[in-house]
Design brief:
The chain is an alpha+beta fold. 44% of the residues lie in helices and 23% in strands. It contains three helices and seven strands. The longest helix has 35 residues.
Length: 173
C-alpha cells in the first residue's frame, strides 16, 4: 500500500538566488540610467553649441530608456519585498509567503502555470490576475516567477503535485 500523498507542497527560494536576482536588476537599472544620461548630456552639449534641433532629437531618444528604467525600479521594489520567498500549493489553492506576509489565491484564480526555460535555466511562472501582496502591484499582469535551479525538485514532481492538489483543474505546461 502506498502512503497518501502530502496535502501541501512547498517550493522555497534560497537567499543566494534572491541576492543574485537583485544584483542583476540593479545592473540593468544602472545600464538604463546610462542610456538616459548619455543622450541628455549630448542634447545639452548640442544646445549649448547652438544646434537646438539636434538636442531635441537626442532628448526624445532618452524617453523610452527612462520609461524602462522606471518600470524596472518598480520590479526591483517588488523583488526586494519578496525576500525569503516560499511558494505553497495546497488543496485550497496556491499562495506565496515572504517577509511581507502570506498571500493566497484559489485554484480557480490561476490563469497560467508554466515551466519556462531561458538561457539554460528553468523557471516556474504562476500567473494569478490581481493577486494580493507585492505581486498585486502589477494588477492583471501579476506573475510569480521562481527559478528552479536551487530548489532541488524535479519538474515532473511539480507537475504531478499541482495536478493532484488542484484536482486536475490546473495543468503545468
Amino acid at each position: 500500500m502506498q502512503p497518501a500523498p502530502p496535502t501541501t507542497f512547498f517550493l522555497e527560494r534560497s537567499s543566494r538566488v534572491h541576492r543574485r536576482q537583485l544584483r542583476r536588476l540593479r545592473i540593468f537599472i544602472a545600464t538604463q540610467c546610462c542610456n538616459v544620461a548619455w543622450p541628455l548630456a549630448g542634447s545639452i552639449t548640442l544646445a549649448v553649441l547652438g544646434s537646438g534641433a539636434s538636442g531635441w532629437i537626442l532628448s526624445a531618444a532618452a524617453v523610452p530608456a527612462l520609461g524602462l528604467a522606471v518600470q524596472q525600479l518598480r520590479v526591483y521594489s517588488v523583488h526586494k519585498a519578496m525576500r525569503n520567498l516560499r511558494l505553497i500549493f495546497s488543496p485550497q489553492g496556491v499562495g506565496y509567503e515572504s517577509d511581507v506576509g502570506a498571500f493566497h489565491a484559489p485554484w480557480s484564480a490561476v490563469r497560467r502555470m508554466r515551466i519556462n526555460s531561458w538561457a539554460g535555466r528553468h523557471y516556474l511562472s504562476v500567473r494569478v490576475p490581481y493577486w494580493s501582496g507585492p505581486i498585486g502591484a502589477f494588477g492583471m499582469f501579476g506573475e510569480l516567477v521562481l527559478p528552479l535551479k536551487d530548489i532541488g525538485v524535479a519538474h515532473e514532481e511539480i507537475r504531478n503535485a499541482v495536478n493532484y492538489l488542484s484536482n486536475g483543474t490546473v495543468v503545468v505546461r
